[in-house]
Amino acid sequence: QVQLMESGGGSVQTGGSLRLSCAASGFTYSTYCMGWFRQAPGKEREGVARINGNGITTYADSVKGRFTISRDDAKNTLYLQMNSLASEDTAMYYCATDTWCWNLSRIYESKYRGQGTQVTVSS
After folding, report:
1. Strands 10-13 and 57-59, how do they pair?
2. Backbone angles phi, psi at 98, to 5 degrees
3. Are 49 and 57 a contacting pair, CB within 8 Å?
4. What is the pLDDT of residue 29?
5. I need a labelling partner for 117 at 20 to 30 A (CA). Which of 34, 44, 82, 100 fits?
C-alpha cells in the first residue's frame, strides 16, 4: 500500500525559508518519479517540482531559482527546500507519485498523493 506523508509546513515571513519532507512507503521508491504540487484557496492546482529516478529535476517557472527538490533514497524521503518565500507561495503543498512520470503541469493527477502540509507566507 503506497503511503505518502508530508511534513514541514508552517508560517513564515516573506523572504524566509522552509523545508518540506515527504516520507514514502509501500513501493520501490528509488525508481519512481516524485513531485510536489500546491493549491491555494480559490486557485487551480499547480505543479511545483518533479524529480525522476535518475535525479533529473523539473521546476515551475514560478519557483525556479528559489525551490530545490531532492530525494534521499536511503530514507525513502522526498524534500522541497523553499527559499525566498513570497506571499504567492501560500498554499497547501502535496507530494505525489505514480508508476510513470507525469508532466509537471499535470503531476497533481498522480495516482498517489499525500494529505498535504500548509505553507503560509506573510509580510
Report:
1. unpaired
2. -155, 180
3. yes
4. 72
5. 100
Residue 93 corresponds to which cell in the numbers above? 503543498
Q: Which among 86, 83, 69 has a CA at the least distance from the CA of 21?
A: 69
95 falls in which pLDDT band (50, 70, 90)?
A: very high
Q: Return the pLDDT at 28.
A: 75
User: How many Cβ atoms are within 10 Å of 50's Cβ, its own excluded?
Assistant: 25
Task: Write a three-state SS string for the chain.
Answer: CCEEEEECCEEEECCCCEEEEEEEECCCHHHCCEEEEEECCCCCCEEEEEECCCCCEEECCCCCCCEEEEEECCCCEEEEEECCCCHHHCEEEEEEECCCCCCHHHHHHCCEECCCEEEEEEC
| 58/61 Cα distance (integer angstroms) | 9
